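Supplementary Note 3. Input sequence used for the single-chain structure prediction.
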Amino acid sequence: MARKQPDLFGGVYPDAPGHRGVDTSVAAAEAIKPRLSAMQSDVLKVLAVRPMTVMEIAQALRQRFETIQPRTSECAAKGLIEDSGARGISRDPRKAAIVWRLSS
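The predicted structure, written as discrete structure tokens, is reproduced below.
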């Protein structure tokens, strides 16, 4: 079960962007907050085409990996996507990456 983490802006993760309580992390969470649901929706639209790794999703959306990875965590915490069990290539080719799919 996903843990609900209150944020400093009155929202609760995963419905609000998470952060680590560090000033730069808090600022990044605040900056992304207005676009959060649209970005999560974009991730879901891409995964409706086929299962993908975060790196593949980022490439398909022409976004940075660092922007997309938290969106997959949020979507997974909401139960919208799940680990397909398959593995793909990550940013570090020595490590495997989760291939995400829409939840069944």
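The beta strands are 5-6, 12-13, 81-89, 96-102. The CA atoms of residues 79 and 103 lie 7 Å apart.
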